Amino acid sequence: MSNPLINPDLAPTTPAQRTWSLWHIAALWIGMSVCITTYTLAASMIDAGMSWWQAVLTVLLGNLIVLVPMILNGHPGTKYGIPFPVLLRASFGTGGANIAAMARAIVACGWFGIQTWIGGWAIYQLCGALGWIDISSDAAQTNELPLLGISLWQLACFFAFWLLNLVVILRGIESIKWLEAWSAPFLIIVGIALLIWAFTKVERPADLFMHESKFKTPQEFWRVFIPSLTAMVGYWATLSLNIPDFTRYCRSQRDQALGQLLGLPTTMALFCFIGIIVTSATVIVFGEAIWDPVKLVAKIGNPATVVFAMFALTIATLTTNIAANVVSPANDFSNLWPRGISFKAGGIITCIIGVIIMPWYLYQDPHGYIFTWLIGYGALLGPIAGIMLCDYYFLRRTKLDVNALYDPNGIYAGVNWRALVTLAIALAPNLPGFYNAATQTKTFPQIFDAIYTQAWFIGVLIAIPLYFMLMAGRIQIVSETARDRT
């Protein structure tokens, strides 16, 4: 193609490609939400003093909040059939879109690495349960590889799961749709089976709800609730931006909106609840709280049960990883150089970066994982979400010139410095707190720590009015060049 801004993967979807129904979107969210990190989300909140129901409601509320930009940003994907980086061209410009897209892509690469490590860890535990590896001796520090900090067996299991992801990526978007649609019912059944196990292993089911609040004053609760809620929003902050990568394949706005409503908050709250109840059962059955389902499965089952459970964990991690952490960066990298990087090539780049960052270090540090990683990228992506929503709804009134989005000399050409200025200003208040959290120091005053715990909200609330003021009167409403499929 002679046009440097388009390739078959970035072009608007055709009517024939719009095959995703309400069920496919709901199944997408079930597949992404059912994973080990969701299962363990309540652990840090309960450790900080929340009761079981406070933790579940925090997860539910956080996902209902992030559902709003999710559905709103999904609208242009369904209406115009365009992916996330192409939609960014409307607000950031055809050149500036790469800056925002790369911010999303880099985070996704990190998450890809984390989820791949989790999947590899499940395979490692499976091998140990089957007697193929002596985990107690293999995990000894003397077996750690230089610089890597993990054993050769752990590295081999990590790459085994990494290769499984790569195979799905190379088969394209239709294989992802098939994987999510068929795995969703299976994952729901597995979750219900875990609940049944918990209730049948204890004499008094009421004992499973033993996690009571440890807060003595409302102020103590709010100090934990606010950063926890921000972390829950940050958990899917990436998807609230790149959801057009999926909704562009939807048949209607109803399918994308209702599918997300049915699939996201319900599944997240349910599997967080399952994690709490099953962990409560482990306290009664084993005398200790086992939050890690991989360790739990290795401890409770016979070989057949272990094999089945580890297979379930592998499927759960795979469905999350492919959809949440590969599709967007694959498109984002393709947007950097459409002529030279296809969707599949972008997926391969994602896989390579996910290895280079050595994700086992990220996952093994809970403080860095929750308070630096989750909230940190929420601080960055909140302003991008605010800019996108303001541009599409308040300024352009949902009307885009699709042809111009692919025109190097069109109305969206170049870099919209006003969007970049907005991004920088909206991000600035969160940087001191992020630095304190990342370095675990008190370099900047404590007030910045308080601001940082609300990073995503602050970023959005600064970006929307600021971008509106900078762009007011500079946007001409265009005639729509695509049929609105509602």
Structure commentary:
It contains 23 helices and no strands. It is mostly helical and 486 residues long. The chain has a single domain (15-369), classed as Hydantoin permease. Helix 15 (327-336) packs across helix 16. The longest helix is centred in the N-terminal third of the chain and has 46 residues, at 84-129. It starts with 21 loop residues before the first helix and ends in a 15-residue tail after the last helix. 52% of the residues are buried. The model is unreliable at 482-486 (pLDDT under 50).
Quick overview:
With 486 residues, the protein is mainly α.
The level 1 CATH classification is Mainly Alpha
Helix residue percentage: over 70%
Task: Specify the overall morphology.
Answer: globular
Question: Kindly state the mean pLDDT as a whole number?
Answer: 90
Number of domains: 1
Number of strands: 0
Would you identify the regions where 5 or more consecutive residues have pLDDT less than 50? 482-486
Q: How large, in whole angstroms, is the Cα Rg?
A: 22 Å
Helix and strand element order: HHHHHHHHHHHHHHHHHHHHHHH
Intertermini distance:
32 Å
Q: In terms of quaternary structure, what is this?
A: single chain
- Which CATH architecture would you pick? Orthogonal Bundle
* Number of discrete helical segments: 23
Structural class: mainly alpha
Major sheet summary line: none
Strand-residue proportion: under 5%
- What's the CATH topology label? Hydantoin permease
Q: By CATH's scheme, which homologous superfamily applies?
A: Hydantoin permease
